[in-house]
Amino acid sequence: MAKFSRRAFIGGSTAVVGGLVVADHLRFFEPLSKLAPEGSNDLLGDRENGLLTGNETVYRTGHSNNCDGACGHLVHVVDGRVTMIGPAAFGGTTISGAPAPTFHPRICLRGLSQISNTYNPDRVKYPYKRVGPRGSGKWQRISWEEATSLIASKFQEVQAKYGKTSVWIAPYTGSLAFIEGVVGAGFRFASVIGASAGDSEGDNEGDSATPAGWNYLLVDPTLPANAGGFFTGHESVDFMNAKTIVFWANNVAETSIPDWRIMCDARDEKGTRLISIDPRFTVTSAQSDQWLPIRPGADAALVDGIINYVIGHKLYDTGYVRKYTVGPYLIDPRTKRWLRANEVIAGAKDDYVVYDESDGQIKAAGDPSLKTPAILGSYRVAGLRARTAFQALADMASKYTPEYTEKLTDVPAAQIVSLAKVWGTSKPLAVRVGFGLSHWYRGDLSMQALVTLQAITGNIGVHGGGVTTFAGGMTTTAFDFTGFWSPTGKLYTLLEPMDFCDAVEHDKPFPVRAAWFMIDNFAQQMSDRNRVVAAMKKLDFIVVSDYVLSATADIADVVLPACTYLEKTDLLSSNNFYLQYMPKIIDPLFESKSDLDAIRLVAEKMGVGKYFDQSPDEYLRQIMQLGQPDESPLLKGLTWERLTSEAVHLNTEPTPYVPFFNKQFPTRSGKIEFYVEMLLPYDQELCDFKEPIEAWPTNPLHKKYPLVFLSTHTRFRTHSQFVNLPWLKEINYGGQGFLEINPKDARPRRIDEGDVVRIFNDRGQMKVRARLTESMKPGVVNCYQGGWDTIRVKNYIEGHPNNLTHQIANPAQSVIPNFPSNAAYYDVLVEVEKA
Amino acid sequence: MAAKTKSRTRHYAMVIDTNRCVGCWTCAVACKEVNNEPLGYWWNRVLTTAPNQSTSAKPPASPNIDVPYGVYPNLELAYLPVACQQCNDAPCVKVCPVQATFRRDDGMVLIDYNRCIGCRYCMAACPYGVRVFNWGGHEYAPGGTVGYGKDYYVDGRLVFTPYRPKGIVEKCTFCVERVDVGEKPFCVESCPLGARVFGDLDDPDSEVSKLVNEGGAEQLQSDLGTDPNVYYLPVARRVPGES
Known about the structure:
The complex is a heterodimer.
Chain A: H1 2-17, H2 32-35, E1 56-62, E2 72-78, E3 81-87, H3 109-112, H4 114-118, E4 128-130, E5 139-141, H5 144-162, E6 167-171, H6 185-192, E7 196-197, H7 209-218, E8 244-248, H8 252-255, H9 257-270, E9 273-277, H10 283-287, E10 290-292, H11 299-312, H12 318-324, E11 330-331, H13 341-344, E12 353-356, E13 361-364, E14 378-381, E15 384-388, H14 389-397, H15 402-409, H16 413-425, E16 429-433, H17 443-456, E17 467-468, H18 481-485, E18 493-494, H19 500-506, E19 514-518, H20 522-525, H21 529-537, E20 541-546, H22 551-554, E21 558-561, E22 570-572, E23 578-582, H23 595-605, H24 616-624, H25 640-643, E24 648-649, H26 701-704, E25 707-710, H27 726-730, E26 738-741, H28 743-746, E27 756-761, E28 764-772, E29 780-783, E30 829-834
Parallel strand pairs in A: 6-7, 6-19, 7-18, 8-9, 8-16, 9-10, 16-17, 19-20, 20-21, 25-29, 26-28
Antiparallel strand pairs in A: 1-2, 2-3, 4-5, 4-21, 11-15, 12-13, 14-15, 22-23, 23-24, 25-30, 26-29, 27-28, 27-30
Helix pairs in contact in A: 5-23, 7-17, 11-15, 11-16, 11-17, 15-16, 19-21
Chain B: E1 12-17, H1 26-34, E2 45-49, E3 69-71, E4 74-76, E5 78-82, H2 91-95, E6 101-103, E7 109-111, H3 121-125, E8 132-133, E9 152-154, E10 157-160, E11 169-170, H4 176-179, H5 186-190, E12 196-200, H6 207-213, E13 218-219, E14 230-233
Parallel strand pairs in B: 1-14
Antiparallel strand pairs in B: 1-12, 2-5, 3-4, 6-7, 8-11, 9-10, 13-14
């Protein structure tokens, strides 16, 4: 029967495009129902034909589509067609054979729906070039030969005229696989042609603020071994070891559904307490034992309130602060920098300075006679009165009384006290931080505060503790990505997504005139979208590789048909520490090609084809350095046969993985630096709360635009992926977006359930229907992001949430080169009116 | 393929832990996939409810998914996945004028699709509203036949076929074709929360037995006397709905 339905849509499609005519709209992007004669999709008349009678083969793969869940899929194939996807088991042992903790098979509604993603009639099936004005939707089908010749010649033309880096390659996080994803072949291509490229952390999605805040305390980016900063977290099963888990701006139960099982297991098997901190009453809030409704953007203030209580009530971990943090080190009151031993102690070497409680002497931190460095107090040193760093923290936090913290956070003082008591007494305590926290201008500061609190309570580097956003399958040490990216030894030039508009409009830091977007819906998902699209339209040449006609493809000059994860070979290692080989399960549909194959064709025409002439398997072997002298201990003992036959856990130490388990911190001091010297120029050396850049009541703009505008994630999509899948649309209002608004905000605006509303600020506007719900904090509204605003598909009546967001960058993050400022997607004010 | 009649000593039951259910609809999508359900048809649905409410006990806060009960910040929210309850004393079996709906010895309530005449008495009789009438003229998700994809007979009766004929009634089969070969129903296998347990109530050591006999699992609308083989564990938050 496969015959029947495939014939229906392949045949229909070919009929339309066969003549290579210029179409004013692409009929082959339309749903099957419109292509096929009425009723022909009713297979009942030929029911026997629908039976799957052929031989079935079952493959194991990983689902790489950017949700970080890293589910394993069992893919059933009958007669060359995928007929069923289910959850696959994980191996249960490390590469070296040690037992790995129970990791249940995992899948969710999006993974199960992947079949209709791969076989979707909306797929881009052939290469196209634009024939009308940019963005007009007028296309002509062309051959791969013509498409790749055009790309090569345009890139060469632009590079000759504006410099090598004027071509920008933007391969981002639409996939987390190795060759065609966040660390993928696009970077290799950028390197060998001398182009610029975005960074592999996908910062345009708003992900870098919390990693930066984490690095402030835990990683010195200037140390060569740290390579500009890194980010990792506790392996998800390590949450089983926590006594309390705090979900901070993290709707796990909706956005990382399989991870929520681990939290439920911890609660039901170990009695772990679950606490949700969120301005919205989310599914996670509903499932938690306790929910603290917080004013959006006030996160650091709440943490400071807890720090004040914990210090004031001596609930901190004295031994931990003394041994593993910079708490005892004295600060020079004149410069606010660390007091140096060689400047204040005769004959001492360059070192930190401490006060030894046991003999009342000022000593260098490395003094062998040092017994008990004081963690609190201020001491006379060389005519100065110098505080310890922990005293400085205590002094800073002292103003955050429960009452003052309530004023800032809108969380009742009694709840703040109760949370602080839990924090100080229920250990180990784990914090799971959502990227929602990163979507604020001060997201770095919020994370800085959380790591500070976790440090003084002794919760860093221990099982069941930590501050985790995701666990690093992307361990920077295990894989040779740099070698893969730069086969000639020369790396591409970095151009952050946040710098794209300036590069196009003002040639800063250098001109960009052409771009190739892969797995990336930049024109819709990047903030301040009106500005982004205007800049994109100024480019001389845009290539988009995708399997759907995205908002970004809408304004391209050439669109290339990409493969889905079932049609190409790759490797997935993300969120958990299992390596999942992704075999090519079916041949690419229509004329689609993997990005590696597409790049190879362009590279050949640009004279650099030799860097792309190997198979995905060969590149994977190189990235993993299997059996080579440089092979990481994490991979030691792994054979290709084992890699391709099961999901195998890395040799992590410990298992489950805990960052800094040995309490060796890769900072300048070797300790957790909650007093961050490198942030002195930003007046941010301690985690003292600062107001958000826009969404805060004291901002004068608040009078004009009194509502905080969130654009959170829904279970029915991963960013702008899976939007068009029929099963998911059926349970998600046909895919139509809506604005969640509290009745208290709706009533004075005369907005009723289902009314069309206009959401606007100075940057733009959008229209959707209103959904009145008590889940929203009064003064806060939410519109799920990621729905499509393309020429053909309007999931919002008009616009997209990113018409309202901005690109105001936080300069403090520049101290961590790998995590410069992302866009503060949630730090946004709007007004809403009935349309 | 057709299992011959022999005495079955099992008594299948399912327990759904509503304390774990996050309303993600993965079970419903899994059901749709394995059974090749057409667009618009759901044998398994997930209701947004207040905690521990039977389907008909309290009107929804809103017809919309995820909309909680109460006033901010004193809120509560839970979900209730509902498919055929596989009743021991099934009203649908009693009213079927042609004995198309029948109960197998092991507790599975099945429909003989060759026999059903589409009178829909069973739909009127079912207090859980879980049977769907096949109006024909369907659309399907793209990709062709998905799921089990073959006909399956029990005692010579067609109890599963990937394209059900127009004019019959269809519903959850407890994935009889999978269970008969030792697999779990696909919703149980797919639930990302591990919230669904399937097993043999006649085996006192099975997890379902323990949950039903000692774990506080309850039947939906048990006062109706239909004696379902689907049980629900209640929502039990430590500090329920605390703001």
